[in-house]
Design goal:
alpha/beta; 194 residues
Length: 194
Amino acid sequence: MGNVVVSEFVSLDGVMEDPGGAEAFEHGGWSFKFDRGTEGDKFKLDEVLASDALLLGRVTYQAFAKAWPSMTDEVGFADKFNSMPKFVVSTTLEAPEWNNSTLIRDNVAAEVSKLKQQPGGDILVNGSAQLVQALMAKDLIDEYRLMVFPIVLGSGKRLFGDSGDPTTLRLAETQAVGKDGVVILTYRPEGQDR
């Protein structure tokens, strides 16, 4: 399918937890305090339309599966999100119910490597902190798209955890969106032509 693209909402201090407020995180909903503007909305729409699959951890998958199947919109975001193949990494989920969902229980690195070899577009990863860190450790991420919001949360799950080896990334693109200082930063692993 192509590249594994990690797309996250993050605070200035790297927190990615509960930007939409659907979880029990004390700072949940922090991304809604800022206007990402039509440029930010277009970026997210274009990203989904260019992707051919979703790769998600169980927690994010269950939150999305609860919210998205009943959503509709005029621009096609919801239709694309609901219809594309979804791969959920979990050892505890019994039967994924969101349409076009496939469970990955074992050998995550090998299974994701196989997905990358199939023809098609991007494999999009949203949220899924534990999965992202596992993919990072196995050098399976081709691109990071970070929508950075001008807030320091001080606590919460961080995109880049405290374990692992140093990783050098190359800045590929920057874009300011909205009127509140939200910036989209696109990074690719250093030394890899992808």
